[in-house]
Amino acid sequence: MADGYHGGLGLLLDGRRLSPVQRRIAHYLSEHLDEAIFLSSVELAERAGVSQPSVTRFAMVLGFAGYPELRQALRPLVLGGGAGEPRESVLRGAIDREIRNLAVVRERLQAFPLKELGEHLAATEPLPVVGLRVSCGLATTFAYYARRIHPDVRLLTHGGSELVDGLHAARRAGAEWVVAVVLPRYPRETVEALEYAGKLGLRVAVITDRPDFPAEIVLDAPVSDRLVFDSHAAPLALAMALVEAMADAVPLRTRARLEEYERMTDEAGTFLTGDLP
């Protein structure tokens, strides 16, 4: 997690997956390193808007016994002439990382079994789509577009017994596949639900950032963790590529459904035409 941070601080953060609270501390240090090296852990917590124990845990995540040791390691970065990076630099670093993430997906497109998976998903009815917590957003987007070209997409974004019931009902109705979006931080109940889906006989395809995720087909795209919360440009691009593959798998049905949808929205006046009011 080095991009957009002061060089020395970036080296300490490189390869670390920080929680949102810990990222707030990292961002404050990056922007105010010249004054932060003289703050106590209580003062740093107050300035960063976190608790004092969070500062201590942050230091320990970076491999230090506590905050005093981290502060001592950071002081040469400033006293030796370094300075914190402005917020604009942090944001540029985050966008640069997303550009690189998208480039990774572009270079690996041929390696993904998009055509094969698109054919499987287009053929299965119904098609359950799972996404809990932060993964709900991308799962909802995928399901929204998939519904334009598939007759029965079932979005499952609530955990617990409702998720289990939804998977069971989909399997009883004839589903052969389930698509899940699983992005960090990874909900335990999502993993457990997909294990249950496998026991039901459902084949599992996952959009995630982890190539080692336990599923029959894994479409992995890197996630940017340069801001307080992750951003998901690359997984979104991969999800849309999968929708495209589904559309290509059944071109006649796709055309008929899209034309029907256009007629329906025209008749209902669903979308604005011309200039906005």
From TrEMBL:
<dbReference type="GO" id="GO:0097367">
    <property type="term" value="F:carbohydrate derivative binding"/>
</dbReference>
<dbReference type="InterPro" id="IPR000281">
    <property type="entry name" value="HTH_RpiR"/>
</dbReference>
<dbReference type="InterPro" id="IPR036388">
    <property type="entry name" value="WH-like_DNA-bd_sf"/>
</dbReference>
<dbReference type="InterPro" id="IPR046348">
    <property type="entry name" value="SIS_dom_sf"/>
</dbReference>
<dbReference type="InterPro" id="IPR009057">
    <property type="entry name" value="Homeodomain-like_sf"/>
</dbReference>
<dbReference type="GO" id="GO:0003677">
    <property type="term" value="F:DNA binding"/>
</dbReference>
<dbReference type="InterPro" id="IPR047640">
    <property type="entry name" value="RpiR-like"/>
</dbReference>
<dbReference type="Pfam" id="PF01418">
    <property type="entry name" value="HTH_6"/>
</dbReference>
<dbReference type="GO" id="GO:0003700">
    <property type="term" value="F:DNA-binding transcription factor activity"/>
</dbReference>
<feature type="domain" description="HTH rpiR-type">
    <location>
        <begin position="5"/>
        <end position="81"/>
    </location>
</feature>
<protein>
    <submittedName>
        <fullName>MurR/RpiR family transcriptional regulator</fullName>
    </submittedName>
</protein>
<dbReference type="GO" id="GO:1901135">
    <property type="term" value="P:carbohydrate derivative metabolic process"/>
</dbReference>
